[in-house]
Amino acid sequence: MLIQKIKISNYKTYLSLDLDLTVDDDRPIILIGGSNGGGKTTLFEAISGALYGLKIENKEHFMELLNQGALNSTKQEISLQVTFVGKVLGQLQKYILKRTYILNAQGKPVESVSLNMNGNMYVYGTMTAPKDRVKAEQEINKIIKANLPQELSQYFLFDAMQSSELLKKNVFAQTIRDNFENVLGFKKYIQLKRAAEKLQQEWAQQRLEAEKEAQEYNELCAQKDKLNLELESCIAEQDAKYKYLSSVEEEYNRAKAGAQEASALNKKILDITAKIDDIIKRAATYAEDLKGFVDNIEINLFLPKLASNMAQEINNILHVKEQLQKENTGAYPIETLKDVTSKIITYLKDLSLCNESVDEEQVVSHIVAIQNSTNREDPFAYLDEAEIKALTALVNRTGTNQFISLDRERQELEIQLSNLDNLHSQKQTLEQTKAGGNEYLIQNYESAQRQIEKLKGQEATLKADIQKLEKRIHQYDVQIQQEPDVKFDTLVKLKPLFEKIADSLLKKKKAQIENEMQQQLNKLLISYKGHVARVELSDSIEKFNIRLFHTAGNEISLNQLNAASKQIFIQVLLKVLRNLGDYNPPVMIDTVMGVLDNESRDALMEEYFPLLAEQTILLCTTSEIRTDSDYVRLEPFISKTYTLHRNVEEQNTTVEEGYFGITLNQ
């Protein structure tokens, strides 16, 4: 996948931007400079938003994202368009993906999406019929996922300052395991293994003839399921504790040193409070939107669908009514006819222009007869005016299917809500530390450490109990297998087969990953440069971890690496995964130097960025890629350079070619 162009309209600091991001084969880097607050991160967010969509919560959020220069515009609209090429099923395709956001009549943000794939169009939006919308959205999401799934994008479109966060405590093992399972394609086999095990148990239950045996087997399987749930809960609780320890580790270290400052505590409390309030606000907004969706489901979905199905018949009725109304425009009421006729005949008689014997009633009757002869009969006369208005409103009604966006919001909200208890615990700990001194924070932190050790013990016990149950269940499986049954025999073989496939795939790539990581770390990990003896990956994907070993023989603890070394380690890992994975995405890095020292910076310039990917987009300031030294090293590998300029007065970011006044030497 290579990004060719990004077009932005009315988004944050960008009123209008059309940026060429194509690269030459031998010059894979695009360098985009800008001062702090100049629009680099916004450009980064716009590319991600164009690919995966913006999560605009409400009208206030929409107005925050809308460029200030667009406020006085006749059409307040945010537009993001990305052009990229990628291979799907071996075929190179060009895609133009555009997302547009406006406020509807009710003041709610709505999204319209179009994807042009080599001339084939997929479009959906608020005016799209629900059935067509779902189909088009599925097709577009399928295409995006084939090039770079959203869950993996964080590993290739990332902020270097945040990368070292992945190495915190237990977060690393889970993050990297998930990354390996997804990027290297192992996850589907793990899921298939679990599904095969479940099917095997269900079929075994049907095969056990004796009622008592069947009951015992069912009870064993139920016990195992219960223990598995307890095990998952235990691991989740450990993860929550690790996240808690990680979040207050800095404050704990200060407290231990007796240097905890009130101002630092206050700032941390305010930050956490803001996060909690934001999650609660989002949950309330979601609940309100969900209620509105349910309350108006007939108006927004059923009625538009009914109108769509009956549109031809309703339009026919309205057309006939409209024609009759036009034809009857010249007809007059009987009283008006009588009054006008009387005045005209009287006037004519006074002027002796008309015979005195002319009868007014006969003239009126004649005019009425002529009117009636020119008017058609109304086949829909039984419909009154109110019913005609209702039919007109029905065919003109537009509906909004919010289900897909609501479901996406629900998934994101579930992740945030799962962290809410942790945030409350942090806040409570810090508030009580502020009131009662450092001792409270120290006690809480160390108590959490003890709880983790206890949970580890519970985890080991649960795993042992599950193994015992599996042995007893296996005895029944052996008994069942004594009688020939092709289906059961196949299901028994499937579970280890899928596990074996996942592990064999890992083993096949294991040596490549270990070897490439060792080479890269020996060049880039300055604190252990040339002294990484080996990188060791575990043999099983389900119990996956990575270990480093020094040439002296000891293990190098990942958690003990400094911030710069952690950033380097993660960036090396992401590079290796990219090169050996199932996807070929561009790499886009914001704040490229993060917390790196000079030696680490030099190593990245020479050994990392030039060979990182087929397309590498670097967003930086002059303090990160210095014009007098770093730029000179990178220039031979750069296809394009741009500088972002922030106009504070006009609240707008513009772009010019060149890197802070330096023209690229091609």
UniProtKB/TrEMBL annotation:
Residue span(s) of domain Rad50/SbcC-type AAA: 5-235
Coiled coil among keywords: yes
Chain segments annotated as coiled-coil in the UniProt record: 189-265, 403-479
InterPro entries: P-loop_NTPase, Rad50/SbcC_AAA
Keywords: Coiled coil
Protein name: DNA sulfur modification protein DndD
Natural source organism: Phocaeicola coprophilus
